[in-house]
Amino acid sequence: MLNFFKKMSVAVAVTLVVGFGSTPQLALAKAGFPANTDMRNLTEMPVTMTEQEGKLLLSDSPEMVEADGIMYQDTVNGDTRLFFHHVNATKELKKIVVLLVNDSDTATDVVVHQHGLGGPGLDYMAVGKAAQMNYLKQEEIELIEVPAKGAALLEPILNKTVVAADELVNGIYDFQSKRPIKVVIMMLPVDADPASFAAKASVLPNTNHALRGTFAGRDRLLVPSQVYNSATDGVMAITLADNKIDTYVSGIDATDGSKTLNFGNYGVMYKLFLPTAFAQNYAVYLNPRGGQYAGGMKVKYRHQEGNTTGTPADKLFFGNQTNKDVAYLGDFVGGQSLWLTFSPPGASNLPVKLILAPVAKN
User: Fold this and answer.
1) Which of 72, 204, 273, 332 is the most exposed place for a label (fewest CB within 10 A)?
2) Position 317 in a domain
3) Is residue 15 situated within a structural domain?
4) Chosen domain end from 160, 183, 216
5) Dihedral sign, CA of 96, 153, 204, 172?
């Protein structure tokens, strides 16, 4: 991921819709959260984590793709999520596509439940944020028929999309197949036929960071083991994707059988339920701990339709000051249902902390 390879274009000013409330720093100061507080020493809220069923295919190595070929492939069935994140590192125009190959004698349907696509683009953080925001907001179901002994594109628009030199494409796709289906992620010439190319293409060498593989537990359900009471607990944190409190998922690189680790848990979807005390209102923030960060968060409150907000909401990215930068997710009434959906965004740095605090004073 690009926290390892920081190849960013000149910063592009992007203004996003502002989420809730006042500016984050002002809100924290009003909540009795001093500006010089060390975010690393916040009291950690104990959390019970349960891994949900389903597989995650991660294709991010080689991240900088220097030749035509297959970046990753594996055969799956059932519930699957694909997270792919690749840059055209050649000097030529290319396309990056995902092919679904059916080797059986029976046609099969692939149902796409949710997806998000970002890019192609030179501003890598903008591409990663767009893919995640699009994924969190999208709820339409699509049906793809893959013929017997044939193939179909997971995202047809990518076959018509030209990826220029140094441009990034990032995609997140949840799909289901009742029969085994081979998923092939590849870069190829713009005029090449994907099925013909895949039949002859070789798998590209892995890079030193080895961010590709097939992993179990594509979703994590998190529930704190205590009820949060803002009046007595004060400020608390839940750390995500640090490989200490929240460990990385391990898997197998299906192209060579080697063991692999998903550094950053990219593609893993976290669903966090927060039990809170009645009559004790509270606020929630996100604090980037690893550096520059640009993502999104889905907030479902009181069983209502979820609201997706940028993290941060008022600009493209933040995280240059990890002990000060926070994204304000809102004030909430204690004792009411609150679900947060989070996933490490492409091109951003991990870990992050979710911060629970007393409601800011007027």
Assistant:
1) 273
2) yes
3) no
4) 216
5) positive
* Cβ atoms of 153 and 97 closer than 8 Å: yes
Structural domain of residue 119, as residue ranges? 55-216
> Which of 105, 187, 116, 115 has the alpha carbon at shortest distance from 148?
105
Q: What is the per-residue DSSP string for 7-49?
A: ---S---------SSS-HHHHHHHTT--TT--GGGSEEPPEEE
pLDDT tens digits for range 231-271: 999 899 999 999 999 999 999 999 999 999 999 999 999 99
- Cα separation of 274 and 276, whole Å? 6
159: in domain = yes
Question: Which one-letter amino acid corresponds to residue 347?
Answer: A
Residues 16-52 pLDDT 10s? 222 333 355 555 555 556 556 678 889 999 999 999 9
Does residue 197 sit in helix, strand or coil?
A: helix
Mean pLDDT of 340-361: 93
Dmax (CA) of the chain? 67
Q: What are the two backbone dihedrals, phi and then psi, of residue 212, each rounded to the nearest 5 degrees?
A: -155, 155
The answer to whether residue 13 sits within a structural domain is no
Give the whole-angstrom CA distance, residue 133 versus residue 114: 12
Total-model pTM: 0.91
Summarised one tens digit per residue, pLDDT across range 170-197 is 999 999 999 999 999 999 999 999 999 9
Q: Is the distance from CB of 343 to CB of 217 less than 8 angstroms? A: no
The CA distance from 280 to 296, in Å, is 26
Q: Is the peptide bond before 345 cis (omega within 30 degrees of 0)?
A: no
125/183 same-domain check: yes
Could you give the dihedral angle defined by the CA atoms of residues 142, 145, 150 and 153, in that order, rounded to the nearest 10 degrees?
-20
- pLDDT of the residue at 36: 63
- Residues 106 and 201 both lie in one domain: yes
The token duo for 333 is 């009434």
Name the one residue in this structure whose structure tokens are 């059986």: 104
Among 216, 245, 266, give the residue marking a domain's end.
216
Instruction: Centre a 10 Å sphere on the Cβ of residue 123 and count the other Cβ atoms it contains.
Output: 22
CB 188 within 8 A of CB 200: no
Beta bridge partners of 185: 72, 98
> 63 and 209 share a domain?
yes
Cα–Cα dist 71/157, whole Å: 19
